[in-house]
């Protein structure tokens, strides 16, 4: 753990101590990068990604490309900022699947519950041929360059204020917050709950006031959002992996030299790795599950309990995805499931 944290520290800060001749500020290309969370490389995945990316890009280009970060949703809601990136008002954004679906609905094909056997397989799938295929389709349909797929914090877990969850019957009557994705709503429905779409900025208050009984998110997000202050029960379901989608404006990308493109892409890859490492560190450190366990009752689903949930959700979601996104969506879904199968061998 200490080694991992030291590695993250080096990734995030090394460029700050590398001497380089600053390019003429007036001639520098400015990349404005928006993300949803705090700009702290040790607090959350996007904070780590943004910090590492900024330092590596500015060092690697000798200051010819400057990165300005805009954390905490400063520039608007996720879907609104996505449109700003597309229009070139800002140059880049790290987006949740919920926000990204407003422009590319077919991102919902990755929302197959209980599809991944472990977190390492998610990396293989989104870094491999399937990730390249998905990125190419996104680029063709949105006109934006995909820099990669980040880790939003690991597998989604369920929290609520009413009772422990061990079966779909325990979900009955619970109002569970979801993103606006129809696939996320369908997942909660098939798990036995009542989906309630609530904006991220409003979620803490909604949980506090009972507008929603619970929510689903990865451990690091539950921890840094302090949902343990307003939720009593945490169930480790590992039922979903929802990546961040990192895009850059096509005209800005075209304005970069070939060398700058290589540097920016490599920096994004390193940043994504740093975000993944931080997410795993937070999960296992005192800032993650151990802290949540101090004032939340935590239970992990057994293999048998997970299988009951899988049977209740997965077939319905696969059919829903095929119906919703048509032949093109089915082809992408088949590629997704095949990639998981291959990576799991």
Q: How would you describe this protein?
A:
This protein is α/β, with parallel strands linked by helices. It has helices at residues 2-17, 45-60, 78-87, 97-100, 119-127, 129-142, 168-171, 182-191, 200-209, 219-224, 250-255, 258-284, 289-295, 303-343; strands at 29-34, 65-70, 92-95, 145-150, 157-160, 175-178, 194-197, 214-217, 233-236, 244-248, 297-300. It folds into two domains: 2-151 and 243-284, Bacterial extracellular solute-binding protein, family 7 (D-Maltodextrin-Binding Protein, domain 2); 157-240 and 286-343, 3-Layer(aba) Sandwich (D-Maltodextrin-Binding Protein, domain 2). The strands form two sheets. Strands 7-6-8-5-9-11 form a six-stranded mixed β-sheet, sandwiched between helices. The chain has a five-stranded mixed β-sheet with strand order 2-1-3-10-4, with helices on both faces.
């Amino acid at each position: 753990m200490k080694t991992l944290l030291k590695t993250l520290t080096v990734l995030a800060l090394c460029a700050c101590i590398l001497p380089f001749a600053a390019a003429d500020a007036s001639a520098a290309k400015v990349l404005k990068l928006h993300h949803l969370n705090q700009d702290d490389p040790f607090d959350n995945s996007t904070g780590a990604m943004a910090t590492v990316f900024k330092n590596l890009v500015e060092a690697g280009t000798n200051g010819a490309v400057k990165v300005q970060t805009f954390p905490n949703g400063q520039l608007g809601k996720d879907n609104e900022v996505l449109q700003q990136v597309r229009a070139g008002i800002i140059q880049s954004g790290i987006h949740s699947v919920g926000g990204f679906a407003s422009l590319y609905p077919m991102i919902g094909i990755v929302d197959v519950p209980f599809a991944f056997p472990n977190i390492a397989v998610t990396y293989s799938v989104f870094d491999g041929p399937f990730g390249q295929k998905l990125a190419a389709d996104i680029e063709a349909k949105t006109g934006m360059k995909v820099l990669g797929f980040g880790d939003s914090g690991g597998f989604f877990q369920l929290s609520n204020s009413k009772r422990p969850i061990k079966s779909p019957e325990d979900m009955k009557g619970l109002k569970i917050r979801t993103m606006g994705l129809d696939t996320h709503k369908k997942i909660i429905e098939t798990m036995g709950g009542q989906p309630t779409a609530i904006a991220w900025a409003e979620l803490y208050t909604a949980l506090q006031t009972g507008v929603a009984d619970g929510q689903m998110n990865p451990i690091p997000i539950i921890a840094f959002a302090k949902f343990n202050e307003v939720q009593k029960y945490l169930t480790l379901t590992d039922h979903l992996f929802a990546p961040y989608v990192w895009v850059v404006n096509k005209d800005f990308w075209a304005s970069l030299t070939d060398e700058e493109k290589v540097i920016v892409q490599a920096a994004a890859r390193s940043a994504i790795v740093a975000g993944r490492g931080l997410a795993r560190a937070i999960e296992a450190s005192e800032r993650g599950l151990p802290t949540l366990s101090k004032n939340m009752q935590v239970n992990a689903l057994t293999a048998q309990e997970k299988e009951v949930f899988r049977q209740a959700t997965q077939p319905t979601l696969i059919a829903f995805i095929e119906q919703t996104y048509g032949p093109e969506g089915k082809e992408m879904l088949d590629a997704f499931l095949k990639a998981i199968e291959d990576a799991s061998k």
